[in-house]
From TrEMBL:
This is Bacterioferritin-associated ferredoxin. It comes from Marinomonas foliarum. The keyword Cytoplasm does not apply. Keywords: 2Fe-2S, Electron transport, Iron, Iron-sulfur, Metal-binding, Transport. Its cofactor is [2Fe-2S] cluster. It comes from the Bacteria. The keyword Transmembrane does not apply. Belongs to the Bfd family. One of its GO terms (molecular function) is metal ion binding. Residues 2-50 form the BFD-like [2Fe-2S]-binding domain.
Amino acid sequence: MYVCICNRVSDKEIKASIQDGATTMRELYKEHSIGSQCGKCCQCAKKLLNSELIKIADTQVQVA
């Protein structure tokens, strides 16, 4: 699914960036230009960022 239509950024690309270490919207902006055009993608991208970071945190807690 495309999160940012203006820049053709999919949810898979955002998830991959998060797995590679992106933890903020600023980092997603630098890598994918999220929100640089119309800005309609920001809310969806932020929800995706938060849910992926929670998954990563849950995994780390279970391992420890």
